[in-house]
Amino acid sequence: MAAAAATSRRSRLLPGVRRAFQPISEARGLARAMLWTGALVTGLFVFMACFSFVIAPYGFDQYQAHGHRFAQLAHPSSSHLMGTTVQSTDVLSRVIWGAQTELEVVALALLFGLAIGVPLGVISGYFAGWLDRVLVLIMDALFAFPYLLLAIVIAFLLGNSIGRGVFVAAIAITVVYIPQYFRVVRNHVISVREEPYVEAARALGAKPFTIMRRYVFFNVVQNVPVIATLNAADAILTLAALGFLGYGLQPSQAAEWGYDISRATSDASSGIWWTGLYPGIAIVLLVTGLTLLGEGLNETINPVLRRRRVEKVELGSSIVEAEVGP
Amino acid sequence: MAAQGTSLKSYLLTRLALVLPMVFILLTLVFLLMRVAPGDPVSASLGGHVPPRIVQQIKHRLGYDKPILTQYGNYLWDTARLDFGTTITDRRPVRDVIAVNGAATLELTFFAMIVAVAVGLLIGLLAGRFRDTALDVGGRLFGIVIYAMPVFFLGFLAQLFFGSYLGVLPTSDQASPITQALLKTHTNIYLLDAAIDHDWSAFWDIFKHLILPATTLGLVIGGIFIRLIRVNVIRTLKDDYIEAARARGIPERAVVYRHAFRNALVPVITVVGLQMALLLSGAVLTETTFNWPGLGHELVFYLSNRDYAGVQGIIVVFSLVVVAVSVLIDLVSAAIDPRIRY
Q1: Contact with chain A for residue B137, Cβ under 8 A
Q2: What is A244-284 written as a DSSP string?
Q3: pLDDT value for A236
């Protein structure tokens, strides 16, 4: 124990990183399978998003090639693997370009959410007092609000004044998730605040912000990757829902799966399935991938759910403690 | 640590006292969003083809020309009297919208909740009980996939399969036009109205229209219940008192069914309440997908017409409903589980 403390004093970050990844390499069974399946599926979509200009056969709003227009609502065929829409655009291309849109917006939304939610949570939890109460009340109110309504109203208002786009969509989604980061981080900070090592730092005369930055922050961020991954999954659904209701991106700006499905619902009654099915499958796959990743992380990081290989425990020695302790 | 619990009565009083600031904050939030946001609500809703004199007239009628603090005060006072204003575009009192379209939403969400609880309980309990078996993996996969499924995509698939391919179920509206025209209104809840008049063919018609939307929304909410119930069962099965029950020689069946499941379900009640927000969000999407004339459907209508007054009224109602349900759920779970009243 003492030796470990000595090394961690020399390089604070590296052992921390190694410790953070240790449960992942130790994950067994279902948790491991979920983790890797999730990572694989998510990776696939990230790849699709990064290289859509190579993979996609056509542009997301391209309706003609070599001087002649594509057929409207054409069945899937060799020239259009997933068929075409009523505007003659290629469904496959829209699905691929859509991956870029979704990941762009969600990455931006996560970034905003983390940048606002985590610091607010740390400050609120550490200082407590009236600031904490006010923030908790506001965040609880935001959290109680039906998330989609909040996102729609913000997208609607900002769309009316600034105009719709990736940025506005990301902000509308961010507002929904800030309270979640805030709550988790704040509650964790409150328990960490009373830990001996924080008290020791305070006794040594460290300034509050130093304590928050160096001692509290790194001990509470472990939970954040899990929430962030699960929120990313949720955010994809929110963006698709915004698109479905017509408050996502402008159709001329980018391909978006939710919008495509909203256009496809009118096709459903005439038995046309390809315009809605493929964007829908893309959403389900990406969200499932992210959820598996998040749940896998949760099962490996969260000690309550963690299952390890049974290791030899010597009764009456401190090994038991060392194995279980954080 | 003092282990003294609070009495149920004082818990109830504290909880109820906390409602007011919550409602106040929510209302202020809505007001700030709708009024302080840039842009002129009235000209936006009229589409810019109206002479300024008339815009001014409408502004005056709605009180939009008063100072912002006066507007805020009037808004709070009106809301306290349950007057949610009148829409700009079609001049409907929001109270009317709530009575008529809210009834449709109530019908949809009530049956969706039944589907959700049934699916969630069945799969969640079994998956938690038989952890890491094929049943668990199957149940969890179902839970994850259904959670990953946007409610409108599930609706699209249902419309495609049951409406277009099999042609057995209606895929839009709350009832067929004839039923709708002949139905006498008592409660605005169609199913109830038909039952009151003993009009069973209308009842059947309305019920058929309800099946797809309610199942779609219910399955999606149920996916969340599966996850929560499963985790709760697993956690409960690890608890000391389960161990103790086993040690006393109580048969495994009884331990699981009588001790574990019951205790695992108490937190679920709270969670059901928390899903209210999700249920309403899902309802907005389901109503749009199936052209169901509920509050969410109206909200989307007013949004697309840029009717700020209509949007604000419906949003206020939605947030009041969420607060009311969350209080109700807290009270119920406090009455059931003494551990909650700390």
Answers
A1: yes
A2: HHT-SS-TTT---HHHHHHHHHHHHTTT--HHHHHHHHHHH
A3: 92
Give the residue on A whose Cα is nearest the Cα of B155: A265
B321 contacts: CB under 8 Å, gap ≥ 6: B276, B280
| Residues of A with Cβ-Cβ distance to B319 under 8 angstroms | 144-146
Q: Residue B38: which of A161, A244, A261 has the nearest Cβ?
A: A161
Cβ–Cβ < 8 Å for B40, B62: no
Q: What is the mean pLDDT of residues A216-223?
A: 77
Residue B95: CB partners within 8 Å, gap ≥ 6? B82, B83, B84
Give the per-residue SS3 of B195-250: HHCCCHHHHHHHHHHHHHHHHHHHHHHHHHHHHHHHHHHHHHHCCHHHHHHHHCCC
Whole-model pTM: value is 0.81
CA dist B79 and B93 (Å) reads 13
B55 lies within 8 A of chain A by CB: no
The interface pTM score, or ipTM, of the predicted complex is 0.81
C-alpha separations of A231 from A113, A164, A285, B131, B225 in Å: 10, 22, 15, 25, 18
Interchain CB contact of B169 with A (< 8 Å): no
User: Is residue B267 helix, strand or coil?
Assistant: helix
- Count other Cβ atoms within 10 Å, centred on residue B161: 15
CA distance B88 to B46: 8
User: Taking Cα atoms as reference points, which of B324, B311, B320 lies closest to residue B284?
Assistant: B311
CA distance B125 to B136: 10
DSSP state of A65: E
Mark which residues 320-339 of B lie under 8 Å from A by CB.
322-323, 326
H/E stretch holding A69 reads strand A68-69
Please, what is the average pLDDT of chain A?
A: 79
Q: What is the pLDDT of residues B34-91, one digit of tens each?
A: 776 666 667 666 666 777 787 777 777 777 777 888 888 888 888 888 888 888 778 8
- Check CB contact under 8 Å for B39 and A161: yes
Q: Given a cut of 50, is residue B153 above it in pLDDT?
A: yes
Of B275, B135, B298, the C-alpha closest to B217 is B275
Determine the Cα–Cα distance for residues B309 and B63; give it in Å rounded to an integer: 11
Query: What tokens does B111 get?
Result: 């049956």
Chain B residues 188-247 within an 8 A CB cutoff of chain A: 231, 234-235
Q: Which string of DSSP letters, residue by residue, matches B68-94?
A: HHHHHHHHHHHHHTT---B-SSS--BH
Phi first, then psi: what are they for B173, rounded to 5°? 70, 170
Cβ within 8 Å of residue A144, ≥6 positions away: B22, B26, B277, B319, B322, B323, B326
